[in-house]
Amino acid sequence: MVLDNFDLLADDMFQCLDKDGNLVAEDPGLEDSMLKDMYWWMVLARMADEKALSLQRQGRIGTFAPSKGQEAAQIGPAMAMSSKDWFFPAFRELAAYLIRGIPLENVLLYFMGDPRGNIIPDGINNLPIYVPVGTQVPQAVGAAHAMTLRNEKNAVVCFFGDGATSEGDFHEGLNFSGVMNAPVVFICQNNQWAISVPRSRQSASRTLAQKALAYGIRGIQVDGNDVLAMYVVCKEALERARRGGGPTLIEAYTYRLSMHTTADDPTRYRKEGELKEWMERDPLIRFKKYLTSRGIWTDEWQDRLEGEAKSVIDKAIDTVENMDPLMPGDLFEHMFEEMPAYLRDQLEYLKKCLDEREIEEDAEEIQGGFP
Which range of residues forms the domain containing residue 300? Predict the structure, then answer.
């Protein structure tokens, strides 16, 4: 078992593949079909991310948080989860969102400022995007503890960035998870930068995974650009959590190849050489090399995947840009299972105001625009 044999105090990081795609650990023995699925999600997520950036630059969506370079850190855990597990995201988990069944249309709607983008389809155990840094951590632990109280054999996966480890919510959540032995797997995507603050200025800890020691839970640092390593560790942590073995903190050591958000200019705070160095560790290139050595990857297959991904992306864009107008109820009807009385009153008031405004506009049109 990886978690039992990992020494948090040693200078160690778990890998299955090195940066050249060579196996450096025991082969996890995944079927070719699963390996192909992993690569498909990588291609789709990368192409969707790059298209979203283009849409933002064209003014067709609002501020967007790119996830380029972090696909492996998300795809491994998402594919290790069961449909009954719960997923608590931050705001940079595009690949995991897609795997969990959230339509790309929803993601685009969200960044267009349309509240319908935050509607989670029935039967999908996901929480909406969390923008306030770290707030999802104690909430994820609460949900996991509730599963224990209900004797449910499921688990929670909670994503956050390295910047969240500087927030009180992180420490409170991990402390509570340890005390209550909650079935939760924390995944810190350490992409080396909290906007413009480097990892070295956030914590004096040698690793972020070591913070698990203070709370009496398991922790491990994993090569976050190695999709196989992320899958193996997260699967083990989830199985342990479901058996009552408690929480795990996984530090996914990765890198943000793009900007923090489209409101950010990373050239002002990071050196070009740093970016070049990490581009050589690109998770897609690494996994492609591994699949080539397995006789799975071919140029023809790559072309087919890219064609399928383009079709999915183009269809999603066409759908969201031609949707019916937003209705008043869309602002109120998806937060609670049963709408509270105070929200019903606000909804009725909004409808009344809109009806009165429509009557006034009709009257102005009839009178040539003059009251």
Answer: 2-321
